[in-house]
Amino acid sequence: MKKINYFIIAVVVIFITSCTNNQVKLNAAGATFPLPYYNLAFSTYKNLNAINISYGGIGSGGGIRSLKDKVVNFAGTDAYLSDKELAEMPSEVLHIPTCMGAVVMAFNLDNIENLNITPSIISDIYHGKISNWNDTAIAAINPNIKLPDLKITPVYRSDGSGTTFVFSDYMTKTSQEWKVDFGHGKSLKWKLGIAAKGNPGVAGVIKQTRGSIGYIGTEYAFAQDIKTAAIQNPRGEFIKATTKSIALAAEGDIRPDTRQMITASTTKGSYPISCFTWIIFYKDLSIACKDQQTQIETLKLLNWMLSDKAQELTLKVNYVPLPPLAIQAGLKILSTAK
Amino acid sequence: MTDKIFKQLLFVLSLIVLFITAGMIYSLVSGSLPALREFGIFHFISSSEWDPKAENYGALPFIVGTLLTSFLALLISLPFSLSIALFTGEYYKNSRFSRIISSFVNLLSGVPSIVYGLWGFYSIRPIIINMGISSNGLGILTSSIVLAIMIIPYASSLSSEFLGMVPANLKEASYSLGSTRLEMIRNVMIPYASSGVTASYILALGRALGETMAVTMLIGNTNNLPSSLIATGNSMASIIANQFGEADGLKLSSLIAIALLLMLITAFINLIGKLIIRRFQ
Amino acid sequence: MVCVLSSIIAIPLFSIVWKVVSKGYKQISLEFFTQNIPNSWEASLALKSGNIIPGGIAPGITGSLFMVAIASLMAIPLGITIGVYLCENPNNKYASIVRFISDLLQGVPSIVIGLITYSWVVTTLKSYSALAASVALTIMMLPMIIRSTEETLKMLPNSLKESALALGASRIKTTYYVIIPSAFSGIFTGILLSVSRVIGETAPLLLTSLGSSSINWNIFSPTSSIPTLIWDFYNDPNLLNMVWSSSLILLTIVFVLNYIAKTVSQSRNN
Fold first, then answer.
1. Mutation test of the interface with chain A: which of B246, B248, B254, B256, choosing the one with the most A Cβ atoms within 10 A?
2. In whole numbers, what is the pLDDT of chain C averaged over residues?
3. Which of A103, A196, A236, A285 is deepest in the core (most CB within 10 A)?
4. Euclidean distance between CA atoms C228 and A330, whole angstroms
5. Is A151 an interface residue toward B (CB < 8 Å)?
6. Percentage of chain C surpassing pLDDT 70?
7. Nearest to C239 by CA among A35, A314, A52
8. Is A66 on the interface with B (CB under 8 A)?
9. What is the pTM of this model?
10. For A264-281, what is each residue's pLDDT tens digit?
11. Is the domain defined by B62-280 classed in CATH 1.10.3720.10?
12. Which is more confidently placed, A89 or C236?
């Protein structure tokens, strides 16, 4: 029975390698929106402190579920937990914001670089009420552009997503019709258009379809040079998403628990569809961290994420650093964690 | 070890498969109970509503989407996989040429689904748009075509093996009675290997029913009943993949119910397949 | 006619392979196999300056091979034995149930298997792990191995088994030393197809092994794999090129596996 011997040897070898490989590793899972930034931040941290961090982009919901099941040390989420969700967690959960980003309206029109657009036009497009680019409503706010006679193809996310959440949160605040028909949430019941999975899916469809318009995250639009529209903010200004305009949206007070949506900000010059992204963890770190060492390292990492060095990294991959008030709030929260 | 113990061992090991499946069914049933209780089984299966805001969910569009794409894919792949199987199992059997061809075809089975989706999006979709079949190039037809290509290796590889195992003396006997190659294949080889060949097609169909990523990227992801082959729609595996990450409560339960339904439908199709084979034998 | 149909299939086949090769080969170098995963910023710098993205997928290659090897260790003996059992008992009611269920498992979407393995193994072990992923992969590999073993054995002439038994060999010896070697080719094809399938699956690996930024040999820890890396690259606006090169590696592994296996089995048959 030689084969059985080989089998036994293989099993023993696997166990030996597993038991000897026990350095501290941190595990996390969650949103795909901040994935490029987290990968950069965590690999930079690894070079500084020799701690391996694994972050799986399985979606905010997956991250929350993993934290609930205590299989990760912390999770990333684009939508903060509601009071109801917080109550369902086994123990108190804290949020800290890690960076900012925004949702842009990307479009595909030949020879047009700049486009102004308002929330009511966006709502009408997704309702099918405005179906052609040369519609009077669009022309009225874009006097210097010759709009083509071309059908508008709206694009949206087929999967549940934080990007949809932020976008619809903004639309609900600014358009009564949207609020009634679509509401806000991670996935909505859309009326018309093309659905695509993930940011890359939507970006891909927009790039390949003339006359299309859809919402994607800024890190995507900037990295791939996709044309984005200037959106009218509550002050009436038409603002394009830039590092500066996104940062302006977070100006002003921030809740002590940092659970705050910053869409439709009334700050002058602010981009209206900006957002935070959070990392969530148990106040009592020992719940999701197996040993003392892991707890210490997790806390160290989370503090580092709010440091200048980490925040500088955001700019390198087209995200936006947190404003000082948000960082202060985050550090205060971290000081309460054990 | 005596023969008796050996027989017992085989029996015990086969229990593992039952155990895994039973566990799976248990998890799926307990997860889907909230949704089924809320909507009623019959209503859930026949409703085309999928409204996250009103929390009203129905599975019909996805059932139709899955069945349409899988069967269409099987149909499209049939002539190709059968001819490759014949090519490598009979005509050029045991030659280096057939080894290269079958390795190459098996390559198709190793391509990750994401890459199939990407390839379908960038290569097949423009063809469909240019041929004027559909304006956005996504939909049941596009995903069926790519799905067909994905399942060909499953059907052809195994069928090829089974066709190649037909004993030489049977084939020679047929020739000596004066049959042509084609007649021999039709009247001797295929009937002899029919059990195995059908099993490989059922396995291929199973693969098609459960395929997620490639279908998601090409089917259009609209939660409505597809009105025609060129319409967009959604499949059961694809809606689960799309919505599971962010779902909770009633929606999560509905998705699990859809997974359970998929298992049941697979079981049903397998049963029917077996009945059909028995009819023919 | 057979030639015509077979050659038509060559078109999409070549198209896919060509696309993967042409978009992916530039990335390939020794560095690709040995280096750690690049991040988005390094990639964007490289793209802007027209260079190849630095780094490689070493954690993914080792992780994939590690987890598939463990899954095979579990699935192959189990699958073959169950296939033997089914063949030995063609009319047994219990056996038909097992056969039916095996076909059923084949149709379960990989994401559902991933989710179920998550709720059984990951939550119990309180960690994402290579072990959980291997369990998921094993469940996916079993139906194909079981069925191809059973069907191949069914096609063996009875005379083979009978003469071995007539010579006084015990059942177990007959099975393992006579029947299985003769059926080697068919069984091997089933094993090969199932390995090729699971080595490219994303959803179950993402939900059970999570992924890792470095090479991992600990069966109880999160592990990277080529498909999860492809998923990460796909979702990153700067790393899309890595999707093609990683797929190229995957395809090459599958091709080499298949070719070796076919050569071995055909030489055994002759």
1. B246
2. 81
3. A103
4. 31
5. no
6. 91
7. A35
8. no
9. 0.85
10. 888 888 899 999 999 999
11. yes
12. A89
- Residue C152: name the closest of C217, C53, C86 by CA: C86
Q: Taking all residues of chain B, what is their mean pLDDT, rounded to a whole number?
A: 82
Q: Which two tokens stand for residue A236?
A: 């009436």
Q: How far apart are CA A283 and CA A288, in angstroms?
A: 10
Helix (H) and strand (E) counts for chain C?
15, 0
Homologous superfamily in CATH for domain A24-100+278-334: Periplasmic binding protein-like II (3.40.190.10)
Out of A27, A43, A56, the one facing C127 most closely (by C-beta) is A27
In chain B, where the domains are located: 2-51, 62-280
Q: Does domain A103-274 have CATH number 3.30.930.10?
A: no
Domain-by-domain residue ranges, chain A?
24-100+278-334, 103-274
- Highest mean pLDDT out of B130-139, B270-279, C14-23, C220-229: C220-229
The alpha carbon of residue B227 is apart from the nearest alpha carbon of chain A, in Å, by: 15
| A29/C212 CB distance under 8 A | no
Helix, strand, coil content of chain A in percent (nearest 5): 45, 20, 40
pLDDT at C270 over 80: no
Each residue's pLDDT tens digit, A192-237? 888 888 888 898 889 888 899 999 988 888 888 889 999 998 888 8
Give the confidence band of C147 by pLDDT, cuts at 50, 70, 90: confident
- For residue C97, give the nearest of B27, B201, B5, B17 by alpha carbon: B17
DSSP per-residue letters across A24-91: -EEEEEE-STTHHHHHHHHHHHHHHH--EEEEE-S-HHHHHHHHHTT-SSEEEESSPPPHHHHHHSSS
Helix or strand or coil: residue A175? Answer: coil
User: Do A103-274 and A24-100+278-334 fall under one CATH topology?
Assistant: yes
Domains annotated on chain C, with CATH: 58-269 (1.10.3720.10)
φ and ψ at residue B221, rounded to 5 degrees: 55, 40
Cβ of C151 under 8 Å from any chain B Cβ? yes
Looking only at the bridges linking them, the beta strands covering A238-239 and A274-282 are unpaired
**Closest approach of chain C CAs to the CA of B151, in angstroms?**
11
Residues in chain C, how many?
270
C265 touches chain B (CB under 8 A): no
Task: Tell me whether residues B221 and A196 touch, CB distance under 8 A.
Answer: yes
